[in-house]
Write a structure and sequence with these properties.
Length: about 350
């Protein structure tokens, strides 16, 4: 099956008389002993359905987590004491904050690099235990050569993780490039309706899957059943939402490129995420407070369009421009999105 069909059909009950069309919500903390489930911290049929669907879309096997950061933490927990982790200097602040915390406790030795400088990345891979990638990066929208970096990392004996939250498996499948682990904040595009906190990890490595599941079982970083059901329902329309958001983003980028009051427009060429750079942080603040349709919010990947000046967060990289606004383009009518954004930009330019 092709991805659009997989998104709709995988993880459903069998097509048999009296079977429900949708996977039911199994609200159970305890199961009758003697089978495969045993206890609510170990497994749940509703999680299983979501994991089947996302695993199939990414081309591997999936584990669901309570949040994207829970998934990140579980992966980083596998890094040995004092070992080196190579990560992008521009990446999700939650990931960077976890690395900083682990460094302060002398658990790991992070090295943050410019992932667009392939030579620098290859050099940094030496003696690394783990190489963490984002493509596109958050919020710089940098695209990196995942396949080349993966080969270099593997040659150095390191595992490779790609945060695929922005691109989703509709637009890229990093496991096909040899990546060991794919991580998602399922809160974002996968669930797609700004009503779920959840994360996921996908791999083709059965041993990694076994170890990660063991850590999830032990730490209890499990999703709620209702959250898993909502995320699966959202996943059914992922391909449609990504297609519409991407079309909107590409048109907005075309129009934004014609304006003279922007310092820069950053778009990787695909997906629904765009960053624009205004002359100052004050200009960017004025824009995010002047929109009526676009929502000033820190999350992304929902059906509604949101925007945020990222340097308002202390943990954001200092190399991110103070006037950078990250735009998560939704599925509204593009003319309404443009009318609102352009009037806000006009307000900031007065």
């Amino acid at each position: 099956m092709r991805p659009a069909t997989q998104a709709v059909h995988v993880g459903r009950p069998p097509h048999e008389p009296d079977q429900p069309l949708n996977t039911p919500i199994t609200m159970a903390s305890t199961y009758v002993a003697g089978g495969d489930l045993e206890y609510g911290r170990y497994a749940n049929p509703t999680w299983d359905a979501f994991e089947q669907a996302l695993g199939t879309l990414e081309g591997g096997r999936c584990l669901a987590f309570s949040s994207g950061l829970a998934a990140v933490a579980t992966i980083l927990d596998l890094v040995g004491q004092g070992q080196k982790v190579v990560a992008p200097r521009h990446s999700y602040t939650g990931t960077v904050m976890q690395l900083n915390d682990l460094e302060l406790r002398e658990r790991v030795a992070p090295v943050l690099v410019d992932m667009t400088d392939l030579d620098a990345v290859v050099a940094a891979c030496d003696d690394a235990s783990l190489v963490w990638l984002e493509s596109p990066s958050n919020p710089a929208m940098e695209v990196v050569d995942v396949e080349a970096i993966t080969k270099a990392a593997h040659a150095a004996g390191a595992y490779v993780v790609v945060d695929n939250t922005f691109a989703t498996p509709v637009l890229q499948r990093p496991l096909e490039w040899g990546v060991d682990l794919v991580v998602h904040s399922a809160t974002k595009y996968l669930s797609g309706h700004s009503d779920v906190l959840m994360g996921a990890v996908v791999t083709r490595d059965e041993e990694l899957l076994r170890v990660l599941k063991g850590r999830r079982d032990l730490l209890g970083a499990i999703p709620g059943t209702f959250e898993a059901w909502l995320a699966l329902r959202g996943l059914r329309t992922l391909h449609l939402r990504v297609e519409k958001a991407q079309a909107n983003a590409q048109e907005l980028v075309r129009r934004l490129g014609e304006r003279t009051d922007l310092t820069e427009v950053r778009y990787p060429g695909f997906g629904g995420m765009v960053s624009i750079v205004l002359p100052t942080g004050d200009h960017a603040d004025l824009v995010q407070h002047s929109t009526r349709l676009w929502v000033y919010a820190t999350s992304l990947g929902g059906v509604e369009s949101t925007l945020e000046r990222r340097r308002r967060w202390q943990a954001e990289a200092p190399t991110i421009p103070d006037g950078l606004l990250r735009l998560s383009v939704g599925i509204e009518d593009v003319e309404d999105l443009w009318d609102d954004l352009s009037q806000a930009l006009d307000v900031a330019g007065r």
